[in-house]
Amino acid sequence: MINASIKAANVHTPRKPFDEAREQEPLASEVMRLHAALRDLVPELVSRAEEIEKGRRVPADITDRLQRLGLFRTLLPRSHGGLELSVPEVLQLIETLAAADSSVGWVSMIGIGAQLFTTRLPRVTFDRIHADGRANQLAASGMPVGRAEVVDGGYQVSGRWPFASGCQNAQWIVGHCIVHKDGEPVMSERGPVTRWVTLPAERWRIEETWQASGLTGSGSHHVILKDVKVPEANMFDMFNGSSLIPGPLESPLMPFLASLHGAVANGIAAGAMADLAGMAGSGRRQAFATTDLRDSQVFQQEFGRLGAELRATRALLQVQADNHWRRALAGTLNGEADFAEGLQASAWIHAACTNIVSDCYTLGGTNAIMNASALQRRLRDIHAARQHAFAQERFYISAGKNALGFPPVDPMFGQ
């Protein structure tokens, strides 16, 4: 079932390449190469799930392999060693990894999304991160809990950021700060002004706080800076900064980030269905049942229903991502209305995938409650993923307002 989820990427969507001279045939071969490489990696990831969970991190050799495959440069231009894929094209890659292991999928999603962040950096730091086609892994915490005091030549930065997934394997770490001047927050019409600090991983201290019920292997520890002088070149404006890369990445980034989270949820649900199918195929028979689980028409009906629901979540995500990418190519992607739509879809996808995983767990019977069962881990993982801000159902409000004709506002700050 997991292998069945690894399909050729959709390359039919009309796209304006970053480089007008780029040909589509090399692009398609890169997508196929990545899919084939990840397909080969899936059995190992499945077999190492317990190691990943007990270690509370993705082992370095796994992220090293993903780096060598080019996963963390998929969205970058070829001028910086990137593959110049589109956001719709990377969704299946994320789903494949999350279906194999939820934490690997989560950390990979963060690393892929961080490529988008870096386009807002000053050129000197962007070039430093991506020099010589380097596939550096970045970890980021979006919580605005840092303090960046304006000083001569830059900022004095301090903070303790939570949820820095993959920080132990990252080469660069990013944290969100509120800008202060003369001891007071700098304000705009939308609220406090923020900047994101970007420094090599060795400049940060990692506090191993990640003791969580789900996505346990994601290594989402706290990261700390204390009174660090940071030059302007290492700060960027995520929400209002301009892109160094011409083309679709000049568009607002937040709608794309919502889609990346949806891909992880789809992967966790696909993995749960694969686990359940494996259990049913092992000859298991429930207590007092007259047939094996696999031959039960009740089980077959429920499994068919869950498959339809998973197809629906995938279809919504792909249609939305394709639409947003086309809008980005045309320069019409809206950072308010389209972000609200992205969050609306992400909330629905996470809710639907949570139901899929929960039903898989129930159909698995008493075996599913055991620590050795992958289904109990999937259940914990999908609930952890659903706690992220991008999966919250409160953002239905913004989409509902837009549909009713209210003026679009930023769904993160305008409610």
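Next protein, fold it too.
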Amino acid sequence: MTPHNRASKADIAPVVLAPGDPLRAKLVAEHFLEDARLVTDVRNILGYTGVYKNMPVSVLSTGMGGPSVGIYSYELFTDYGVNAIIRIGTCGGLQPSIEVGDLVAAMTASTDSNWAHQYNLKGSYSPVCDANLLLRAMAIAKKLEIPMHAGMVFSSDLFSSYNALGEDSWQAWARMGALAQDMETYALYSTAAWTKKHALSLLTMTDSCVTGQGFGDEMRTVGLYPMIEVALQVASEVR
């Protein structure tokens, strides 16, 4: 156990789905996994382990923001021997070609955070996803006819809607090709690289910074189901 996770090492599967929202972890456990059981609830950060297509899969909330996902992913990789983490999150769309409800697979992440200063690198660091996880996710999404875009995301310490600079906070990143904005991918990918493990960030575009369109209240749960299905199928194929 760690200060943030009361599960035993045997309670956690080799592949973990990682939503930010604890209630999304509960949703995955109750609606998608067989024989799911609660394995940790420290600070109301819920974690479950169950079975999907005869394979053990865990789902653990990571909270909001880079520092939070950094804590939980680091402990999963180092203390629990987890091999791969698949983030299942939401994002704001930065490109007009991305429709509300589309999936974004983060090939790499840029950031306004100083997260990478801890590695004492003599330059700017651009972390990337695990290529095998990405290719599997893209193939599964294509088979299921789920729209998916792959490219760079912008992981910000600032929630775009609350940024004092407004549009100026994301337009420059969109100009440089960022598909979407979230808060966690950069820290997750950096932690996976440091621990020599594997990670993929799958995001559902719930609100477009470009068009102002977004999910209604009723879609903020069921609208995430396609992303969850893709992530679970990927998890069932890798160990």
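About the second fold: Residues 9-237 form a domain with the Rossmann fold fold (CATH 3.40.50.1580).
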